[in-house]
């Protein structure tokens, strides 16, 4: 039964992060996910300092606020003339360092250590459960389910708007779409997705789940809907194969899941028909050979 919950959690991380990561890739804001995955630590610590509780709701709320704060500060620094990558670097390192400092000062005796938040441990997920409406499931499954529903509802109700603000923000602005509201709403979902996956793969490896499947799907698909489906499928594939390989080789489950994401990306990048690196190289060599023959 424990194996089932671990596999289900890993698959749900793959689905939730795969769904969320698509528009990060399309909006060319992939590295903001890295920043948010670290700065939510600041929000979690602040939430604990205020409530003195490790309740999941307050953790989610603190993470969402930290994610919004990160996005807002990056936007402010960009508006002030700083390049996006530099703005992300400044905000990311500053808020993460503050989170680590506050843990040391105010949460040293609480199970809120940096290693747990960053690396996670999916094998322990089945032991931390919540009972809601008579159903008992691991806390990570409940949190991922809630966040997945929020992501799906957001796409169902605002799919056209988020797609338009992604591909043609100028036109979206001229017809009156609230671009910044859509941007901050989406970044809130990224924050919630990140913290919901802490118990399974940790903040650092969440970045792999958010970016890897979506980047691979970008190579495979020519449409946004297709990219979303491919991204979720690849996330699940990486989670399941990563689990069994980690079990076979007695190594880190989360680390193997992230490694499988990289392996899947490289397979697609190298061997995809017509557009893969190997295919293009062979085609170029054949073309050069035919020119030489002439």
From TrEMBL:
User: What parts of the sequence cross the membrane?
Assistant: 6-25, 32-50, 56-74, 86-108, 140-158, 170-189, 201-220, 227-246, 252-272
Bilayer topology term: Multi-pass membrane protein
Q: Which UniProt keywords apply?
A: Cell membrane, Membrane, Transmembrane, Transmembrane helix, Transport
Cell location: Cell membrane
* Family classification: Belongs to the ABC-3 integral membrane protein family.
The name under which this protein is listed is Metal ABC transporter permease
Q: Which organism is it from?
A: Psychrobacillus mangrovi
């Amino acid at each position: 039964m424990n194996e089932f919950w671990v596999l289900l959690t890993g698959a749900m991380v793959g689905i939730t992060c795969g769904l969320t990561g698509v528009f990060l890739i399309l909006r060319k804001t992939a590295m903001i996910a890295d920043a948010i995955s670290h700065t939510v630590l600041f929000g979690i610590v602040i939430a604990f300092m205020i409530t003195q509780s490790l309740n999941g709701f307050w953790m989610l709320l603190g993470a969402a606020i930290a994610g919004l704060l990160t996005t807002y500060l990056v936007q402010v620094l960009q508006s002030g003339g700083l390049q996006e990558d530099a703005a992300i670097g400044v905000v990311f390192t500053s808020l993460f360092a503050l989170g680590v400092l506050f843990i040391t000062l105010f949460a040293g005796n609480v199970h809120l250590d940096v290693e747990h938040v960053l690396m996670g441990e999916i094998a322990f997920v089945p032991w931390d459960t919540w009972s809601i409406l008579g159903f008992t499931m691991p806390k990570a499954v409940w949190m991922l389910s809630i966040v997945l529903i929020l992501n799906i509802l957001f796409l169902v109700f605002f799919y056209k708007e988020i797609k338009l603000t992604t591909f043609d923000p100028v036109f979206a602005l001229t017809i009156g779409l609230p671009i910044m509201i859509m941007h901050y709403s989406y970044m809130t979902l990224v924050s919630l997705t990140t913290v919901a996956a802490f118990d399974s793969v940790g903040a650092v490896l969440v970045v792999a789940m958010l970016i890897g499947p979506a980047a691979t799907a970008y190579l495979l698909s020519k449409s946004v809907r297709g990219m979303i489906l491919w991204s979720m499928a690849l996330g699940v594939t990486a989670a399941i194969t990563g689990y069994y390989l980690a079990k076979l080789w007695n190594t880190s489950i989360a680390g193997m899941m992230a490694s499988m994401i990289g392996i899947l990306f490289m397979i697609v990048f190298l061997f995809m028909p017509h557009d893969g690196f190997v295919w293009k190289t062979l085609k170029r060599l054949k073309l050069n050979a035919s020119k030489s023959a002439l």
